Amino acid sequence: MKQLRLGVLAGVFAVSGVLSWAGARLWASIDTLPGVPVAAPVVLALIAAVLLATALALRARLRAQRERRPEAKGVDPMLAARAVVFGQASALVSALVAGVYGGLGVHFLLDGLDLPMRRTQALYSGLSVLAAAAVIAAAFFLERVLRLPEDEDHSPAPTT
Asked: Residue 95: CB partners within 8 Å, gap ≥ 6?
């Protein structure tokens, strides 16, 4: 399984942000722009909390297993694989969502924050981007916790 790449996530964020900003400008010129839902940062924060709790629980189980504690439960490889896939998928979707809400937030900032509705929407957009960044950070942490040790047979032979 390939590891998450920060460059890929940054690319998804940038492309979706630019497209969202352009779409928001176009939509605002034609009609009123729909708002950012209040639940957006809340849902993203909940996903980040689930990923972090999963990573911490699996890290504790792996540590107990390494220390050969009698009460240690092993980590099922399929559970670990599913957790990593969930983390990677969450990170990719969060990068996309962060770009969309970031583009909307930039539109609100450039359009002016003189109306209370625009300030509120810009705040929700910013909180959504922060919560999406927390999801990405938790996904990287989960992936780091479940990383397998490098195989020693594939290391280069020492040269003399």
From this structure: 9, 10, 12, 13, 16, 132, 136
Distance CA 116, CA 91 (A): 32
CA dist 33 and 127 (Å) reads 19
Q: How far apart are the first and last CA of the chain?
A: 34
- List, for residues 73-104, the tens digit of each pLDDT value: 777 889 888 999 999 999 999 999 999 999 99
Residue 149 has pLDDT above 80, yes or no: no
Distances (CA, A) of 112 to 35, 62, 105, 122, 123: 15, 51, 11, 10, 13
Structure tokens given for 89 = 């998928």
Q: How far is CA 12 from CA 9, 98, 144, in A?
A: 5, 9, 22
In whole angstroms, what is the distance from residue 6 CA to residue 92 CA? 10
Name the token pair of 146: 């479940």
Find out whether 98 and 11 touch, Cβ atoms under 8 Å: no
Report which of 61, 81, 57 is spatially closest to residue 69, judged by C-alpha positions. 61
